[in-house]
Amino acid sequence: MTDPNKPDDRKLDDEWAAAMSEQEGDATPNEDEDPWAAAMAEQAASESTEGDEAAGEQADDTPAQPAGESVFRPLQDSQGSPVPRDLEMIMDIPVKLTVELGRTKLTIKQLLELAQGSVIELEGLAGEPMDILINGYLIAQGEVVVVDDKYGIRITEIITPSERVQKLNR
Q1: The domain spanning residue 103 has which CATH number?
Q2: Can you count the helices (H) and strands (E) in the chain?
Q3: Which residues lie in Acidic residues bias regions (predicted)?
């Protein structure tokens, strides 16, 4: 008596043999069916022709030379002055400028108790320079000015990278 949960070993072997022979028949797929194979063959062909051309130009005992300055522009010209960078491509990238008056921490209970007319005490002191942030990173400090009934900020100090690290610990 055979168990329906255990397949017959001979039947399983026949199914495996059929699957393997079917797979062997598909071992050489048509390039139309496999675009990756076609692309890889095309790449190998182009690399072999480039290699043949390079071998004809270069002697076998000469080592390959790095691309160096023939491909990449030097960062400084021969006189030592920096090459002007092309900043035009980044000039239209928008950034978010934020002026921070001060900070504080509240509990959820204190937050829910706020109503119109509530006063929130901030850590910043009156007359203290305000932080100017670009995309959330401190870059400068300044003071509030009023110009034609509108608020503005006058930059009083640009923050150096070492000062930025110190400010993060606040």
Answers
A1: 2.30.330.10
A2: 4, 4
A3: 23-35, 49-60
